[in-house]
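Write out a sequence, fold above all:
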Amino acid sequence: MDILQELHGQVLLVAPSGRLDSETAGELELVLDDAGHAGRKHFVIDLAAVVYVSSAGLRVLLALAKRLDGGIGSVRLCGLSASVRQVFDIAGFTSMFSLFPNRHAALDQHPHRLDTPARLVDTAAQLLGATTGTTTTASADPERSEAAAHLLGVPASAEVLEKRSTVVGPAVEAKPAAAVPPPAPDSRWKRLFGKD
């Protein structure tokens, strides 16, 4: 079984081809598990090139959906042929998944398909005074500027630092603590232990 993988922002498109049965379901399961261990939480599974799905294939898809249930991630299925759709209908899986006619429809308007690194590069370029073809300036969006500065490891603007600071007064250099001599015995010490 060939399994195509494409990353679209935070969404991993997985497109197996051929039969998805007891002999090949393990390959798809391995790909999905590896993606999960790599931190992938949003999937579009394109089944357009899949000609047959058995219960073993359905189990792999169900396991992925259960793993991402409860807002942890998302699974969208697309490109189901008439015969594959019939298997999903008979098994009652049609209502368990978000189904789309093709990969473009599944990816379009996906809330996690935006390429976050590209947005960070744009923000970093704006902070550095470079132009990237956008009209938004970093100063027009202080929250974005602060987030980008934090991600880049640079200080945010002075105004933002003053608003966020909890320190009152000038900064003080920390010095190592000097050895403190033990307290001198007082009259209570003498009364308790009878020693000078």
Notes: Residues 131-139, 158-174 have pLDDT under 50 and may be disordered. The two ends are 88 Å apart (CA to CA).
